[in-house]
Amino acid sequence: MANTAEEVWQLLGELVQAQKETERRFQETERILKEQSLETERILKEQSLETDRRMQETDRQIKQVNQQIGNLGNRLGEFVEWQVRPSAVRLFQERGIDVHELQSDVAVKREDGGLEIDLLVVNNTEVVLVEVKSKLTQKDVDEHLQRLEKFKRLMPRYQNLKALGAVAAMVVEGEVANYAYNKGLFVLTQSGENMTILNSTEFKPKVW
C-alpha cells in the first residue's frame, strides 16, 4: 500500500503507462489481425480463382475426351459398316435370300416422319434392312424394330417386297443376340477376319 501522496502519484503514473502500453499492444494486435485477415482473403480469392480455372480446364478436357470418344465411335461404326458391305450379299445368299443389290446410307424424309438405314440389301422379292453398330445394345435392336415398322409407309416403292431385318456389330453380347433372335432379326458379327450370321440355319426371320 502507498503511504505518501508521492507514492500514490507514482503508482497512478505507472498505471497510466501500463494502460497506454496495453492500448498500444491492442492496436498493434488489431492491425496484425487485420493484415492477416486481408492476406487470408487474398489467398482465398486466389485459391478460388485457381479452382475455377482448374474446373474450367477439367470441363474443357472432359468435352474434348467426349468428342474424341464420339469420333472414335463413329469411326468404329464406319469400320464395321465397311466390314459388313462386302459380306452382306454373300451371307444372305447363303441363307437362301438371293439378294443382288446393296445400297448404303439410305435416308428418306417426309412430312409424317423420316428414316435412315445403314445398309439396304435388295432383290426382286425381298429387302433386308441392316443396322450397323460398333457394339450392339438392346436399345439399338428396339430402334431398328421401330425402323422396320415404318419402312414401307415411308418408302412405299418397297411395298410389295418382303422386308426383313438384320443388325450387325463388332461386339454382340449373348443376351442382346438372343433378344434380337427372338424379335425375328438376323444378327451379324465379326468372326476372325470375316463377318458371319450368328442365327442357326433353322432360323425363320420375321417379315414386315
Q: What is the percent of helical residues?
A: 55-70%
Output the helix-strand order.
Answer: HEEEHEHEE
Compute the number of strand runs. 6
The top-level CATH class of the domain at 82-197 is Alpha Beta
The largest sheet, given as strand count, sense and whether it forms a barrel, is:
6 strands, mixed
**What's the average pLDDT?**
84
- Intertermini distance: 116 Å
Query: What is the name of the CATH topology of the domain at 82-197?
Result: Trna Endonuclease, Chain: A, domain 1
Question: Describe it for me?
Answer:
- The chain has a domain at 82-197: Trna Endonuclease, Chain: A, domain 1, CATH 3.40.1350.10.
- The protein is 56% helix and 24% strand.
- The protein contains three helices and six strands; from the N terminus they run αβββαβαββ.
- The chain has helices at 5-94, 138-154, 174-182, and strands at 101-110, 113-122, 126-135, 162-171, 186-191, 194-197.
- A six-stranded mixed β-sheet has the order 1-2-3-4-5-6, with helices on both faces.
- β2 and β3 (126-135) form a beta hairpin.
- The longest helix has 90 residues, at 5-94.
- The model has no long low-confidence stretch (mean pLDDT 84).
Q: TL;DR of this structure?
A:
The protein is of the alpha/beta class and 208 residues long. It is built from three helices and six strands, in the order H-E-E-E-H-E-H-E-E.
List keywords for this structure.
6 strands; 56% helix; Trna Endonuclease, Chain: A, domain 1; alpha/beta; 24% strand
Topology:
Elements (H helix, E strand, L loop, with lengths): L4 H90 L6 E10 L2 E10 L3 E10 L2 H17 L7 E10 L2 H9 L3 E6 L2 E4 L11
Parallel strand pairs: 3-4, 4-5
Antiparallel strand pairs: 1-2, 2-3, 5-6
